């Protein structure tokens, strides 16, 4: 979604209308649309559709997390590492919830609303103030999530390569 978000904002407004879209112009996958639209419109619609899907998957993940106990932290981890890991996980969950929510509210604030893979989902109310405010939230939360993801990845590498304490095994599907 980060790549898609950055890519779609670089596309010019009012480009030529077509019904075939080569994903990121890489020649790997082509989308066919039943109606002609600009590339910018297509990618915004795709981003919104995937974002709504992610929002509901995150809600399910949060439900799962609340109803299933996670594995215990390793005894080799210090109290500071346990607190840091817990705080990072809470931040990741919060951001995974806030990013699509802010995107949904931003889209409702626009005049276009949200179509989920072509199906009208939520109408827009054309409120520029609401849209602009939640656009800022959406972008800031996205950047913070990217930072937390990098830190989380670095922590996992540290445990795998330096500590060699089995944290990656704990994170995976092993019991």
Automatic annotation (TrEMBL):
Domain Cytochrome b561 bacterial/Ni-hydrogenase: 2-173
Name of a matching Pfam family: Ni_hydr_CYTB
Annotated family: Belongs to the cytochrome b561 family.
One record GO biological process: respiratory electron transport chain
Keywords: Cell membrane, Electron transport, Heme, Iron, Membrane, Metal-binding, Transmembrane, Transmembrane helix, Transport
Principal place of residence: membrane
Source organism, top-level taxon: Bacteria
A GO term, aspect molecular function: heme binding
GO cellular component term, pick one: plasma membrane
Bilayer topology annotation: Multi-pass membrane protein
Membrane-spanning ranges: 42-64, 84-108, 140-161
Classification of source organism: Bacteria, Pseudomonadati, Pseudomonadota, Betaproteobacteria, Nitrosomonadales
Subcellular location: Cell membrane
This protein's name: Cytochrome B561
Natural source organism: beta proteobacterium KB13
PANTHER family named among the record's database cross-references: CYTOCHROME B561, CYTOCHROME B561 HOMOLOG 2
Cofactor(s) the record lists: heme b
């Amino acid at each position: 979604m980060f790549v898609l978000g950055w890519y779609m904002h670089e596309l010019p407004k009012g480009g030529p209308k077509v019904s075939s879209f080569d994903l990121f112009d890489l020649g790997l996958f082509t989308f066919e649309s039943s109606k002609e639209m600009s590339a910018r419109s297509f990618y915004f619609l795709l981003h919104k559709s995937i974002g709504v899907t992610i929002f509901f998957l995150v809600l399910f993940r949060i439900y799962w997390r609340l109803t299933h106990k996670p594995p215990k932290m390793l005894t080799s981890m210090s109290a500071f590492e346990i607190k840091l890991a817990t705080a990072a996980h809470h931040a990741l969950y919060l951001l995974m919830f806030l990013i699509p929510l802010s995107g949904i509210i931003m889209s409702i604030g626009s005049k276009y609303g949200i179509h989920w893979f072509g199906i009208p989902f939520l109408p827009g109310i054309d409120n520029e103030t609401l849209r602009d405010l939640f656009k800022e939230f959406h972008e800031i939360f996205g950047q913070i999530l990217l930072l937390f993801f990098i830190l989380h990845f670095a922590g996992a590498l540290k445990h795998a390569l330096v500590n060699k304490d089995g944290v990656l095994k704990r994170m995976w599907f092993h019991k």
